[in-house]
Amino acid sequence: MTTTDHMPLSGRKVLVTGASKGIGAAIARTVHRDGGAVAIHYNSDESAARALSDELGDRAWLVPGDLSQPGTARSLWQTATAALDGIDTLVNNAGAWIASPLDDEQGWDAGWAANMQLNLQAAADLCRCALLEFPARGGGSIINITSRSAHRGDDAEHLAYGAAKGGLLSLTKGIARGYGDRGVLAYAIAPGWVETGLSAGAVAEDVLAGLPLREVTPPEDVAELVAFLASGRSRHLTGSTLDITGADYVR
Questions:
Q1: Sign of CA dihedral 22, 26, 31, 33
Q2: What is the DSSP pairing of strand 13-16 with strand 89-92?
Q3: Distance CA 133, CA 232 (A)
Q4: Percentage of the chain lying above the pLDDT 90 cut
Q5: Cβ partners under 8 Å of residue 89, min gap 6
Q6: Rounded mean pLDDT of 129-146?
Q7: What is the pLDDT averaged over residues 82-88?
Q8: How far from 133 is each of 101, 123, 129, 139, CA to CA, in Å?
Q9: Extended beta strands in the chain, E state
Q10: Are 40 and 63 in contact (CB under 8 A)?
C-alpha cells in the first residue's frame, strides 16, 4: 500500500461543526486518523471538545461558536480558516431535534425559528462561505448531514425539523448542480437512529425490535462515509444523498 492508501485525507483541511460529541466527534477522529487536519467546532460543551482535541493532538484545533445565533457562521468560518490556514472540506453536522408543537402558538413560532436557524440557515451560511472561496482554491467538498426526515418528514411534534432537513438536502443538490464546474463537490448523508450520548438509552425496546439490524447506527459508520466522500475517491457521487439507516428507511 502507498502512503496515500494509509492516509487518504493527508493534506486535507476539514471543518466539522458540532464536533464535541456524537457523530461530529466520530467524524473528527476519523478525519484525523486518515491524515487530515480538523477544526473541531463546539458550542456549549467546551470540556468535551477540549478532551477530543487533546486526544487527537497535532492537526486538531478548537473553534467555538453558537450557530443558533444569526451571523455566527461567518465568524466561525474565519476562525477555522485561520486555524487551518485554509479550508477545503466543510462538514455541516451541527443540529438539534427541536420541537415545534402545533397546539402551542409560542412554541410553534419558536420551534420553527430555532430549527430554521440551526438546522438550515447556519449550514447554508457556511456553505456560502465555502462557495465564495473554494473555486479560487481549486475546488473543495461540502458534506451536509441531513436526516431520513428530509425524505419522509418527521413526527407531529417536529414538523419544522423535517422541513429544515429537507431544505438542507435541496440546498446540497443545488450546490452540486450549480458549482460542479467550479470544482465544488457536494454530498448529503441522511442517517436514521444513531447511537450518541443524547440517544443512549432513549431508543425504546419496541423501536429496536423494529429495526432490521436490531441496533441503531454507530456514529463511526457515518464517520467512515464522510471520510470516503472527503477523500475524493468517487467524485461523481456529487449531488447524491447517501442513506445510512440500517435499512430502517429504504427508498
A1: positive
A2: parallel
A3: 18
A4: 90
A5: 12, 13, 14, 15, 36, 140, 141, 142, 143, 230
A6: 98
A7: 98
A8: 39, 16, 7, 8
A9: 13-16, 37-42, 60-64, 89-92, 140-145, 184-191, 241-244
A10: yes
The CB-side HSE value for 81 (13 A sphere, CA atoms) comes to 14
Q: How far apart are CA 117 and CA 168, in angstroms?
A: 11
Per-residue pLDDT of 44-65, as tens digits, reads: 999 999 999 999 999 999 999 9
User: Looking up cell 425496546, which residue turns up?
Assistant: 205
Residue burial 168-190, b: 16+ Cβ < 10 Å; e: rest:
bbebbbebbeebbeeebbbbbbb
Please give the pLDDT value at position 132.
98
Q: What 3-state class would DSSP assign to 107?
A: helix
CATH of domain 3-244: 3.40.50.720
Write out pLDDT tens, residues 139-182.
999 999 999 999 999 999 999 999 999 999 999 999 999 999 99
How far, in Å, CA of 168 to CA of 159, rounded?
A: 15
187 in active site: no
- Count how many residues are written for the chain: 251
Q: Which of 161, 179, 187, 249 is catalytic?
A: 161
Q: CB–CB of 189/244 below 8 Å?
A: yes
CB-count burial class (<10 Å; 0-12, 13-18, 19+) for 138: exposed
Residue 206 has pLDDT above 80, yes or no: no
Q: Enumerate the domain spans of the chain.
A: 3-244
Range 123-130 average pLDDT: 98
Q: Is 175 within 8 Å of 135 (Cβ atoms)?
A: no
Pick from 214, 135, 224, 217: which is nearest to 180 by CA? 135
Return the SS3 of 6. Answer: helix
